Amino acid sequence: MTTNYAIINTGGKQYRVREGDTVAVETLECEVGSDFTFDRVLMTSVAGKLTVGTPDVKGATVVAEISEHGKADKVISLRYKNKTRQRVKRGHRQNFTSVKIKAISAK
User: Fold this and answer.
1) In terms of DSSP H, where are the helices of the chain?
2) What is the distance between the alpha carbons of residues 14 and 40, in angstroms, rounded to a whole number?
């Protein structure tokens, strides 16, 4: 049994996705519950046929449903210099959008 999958590019990162997967990507400007189409598809494997793009696969799309918007866990950044009382502590929470992959199509 072969499973369809694709490698998409969004937010400067690449993700390997299959139908039914839930992936947290960089923030997308869409409403929760709406569909979003990823058109930057770098590679597809549909029905056992592998297609590699140069750099994108022509006509390939990945349709996903927006599940939620949120913030990731806090990441603490600490700089410390010994014996000089220098300490800089900063925290950061990255925004993300959770998407559920509905369909992968390659033409």
Assistant:
1) none
2) 10
pLDDT tens readout for residues 6-35: 999 999 999 999 999 999 999 999 999 999
- Alpha-carbon distance of 12 to 15, in angstroms, equals 10
Query: So where are the chain's domains?
Result: 5-105
Nearest to 67 by CA among 12, 41, 30: 30
Question: Which residue type, as a one-letter code, is found at position 32?
Answer: V
CA distance 10 to 82: 41
83: left (phi over 0), alpha (psi -120 to 50) or beta: left
- 8 Å CB contact between 90 and 49: no
pLDDT at 2: 64
- Does the pTM surpass 0.85? The reply is no
**Helix (H/G/I), strand (E/B), else coil: 27:** coil
User: What is the chain's percent helix, strand, coil content, to nearest 5?
Assistant: 0, 60, 40
What is the C-alpha end-to-end distance of the chain, expressed in Å? 21
User: What count of residues does the chain have?
Assistant: 107
